[in-house]
Amino acid sequence: MPSFSVVICCANVEDTLEPACQSVAWADELIVVDSGSQDSTPGIARRYADRYVVEPWRGYTGQKQFGTSLARNDWVFLLEGDEECSPELAEQLQSMTEAELECYDILMTPRRNYIMGRHVRAWDPDWMNRIIHRGRCLWSQEVLHDARRPSDPSRVLRLSGCIYHRRHSAQGFSDYFSGKRQDERLIAVAQQMHARGKRCHWWDLTLRPWFNFWKFYLLKRGFLDGVFGLMIAQKAAVSTQLKYAALWAVQQGRAKPQADAKESAAGAGTVAPPAEKAAAP
Which CATH class is domain 4-165? Predict the structure, then answer.
């Protein structure tokens, strides 16, 4: 079996860190990078991790790059403190050979998201590029989400085993209502969009939110989840409207960047709909 290092970047995740660590007990090495927990996270981490490090927040990409640099193995599995490796994914990784892995730079995995204890069907498959060969993949600089790309598009393998996100979260409704976290990130995301040439037009504020509502409610079959599915579709619409409103404010010179708050930035994970990771059609 190939050797894998698991890196968990987190802060203040006392209700989810233990199942996260337990889910990767099969790995050769577990490193926990804590960006400043004020709860019982450090004690939990020390019980499970081969190495526990406190490191001030470097940003979504920088923190994971730092954690990756600490690993003793070339293949690194990046998790957040509110995520778990499913048994199916663990089995797939353990069954792979060194020869098979030589063909790839990144192993893609779907992520199964939970809000208020319920699986968000409409967000599937939510592909993550979290299992990487650190010497062959290339890092992309993103404000809100860390991302990596292969040296060549052919060097990516999609696995069927998934990552669980917030399956054991005790936050409840705050997992759905992420207003404070979202507000802290909106301007930074809008500034990055603006720097890349994106502009807000009237149709972005009127049509895009409706498009995303119907995308998640009908096309992604959110209606099968009743009122819960309706809430998820509404969240997608509101998130899209706020993002483009922030972009408009940046265009008008009426928005100032906000400091990246430790609570929201510390690797606790984001509950933004997958549609926010890329510009909507």
Answer: alpha beta
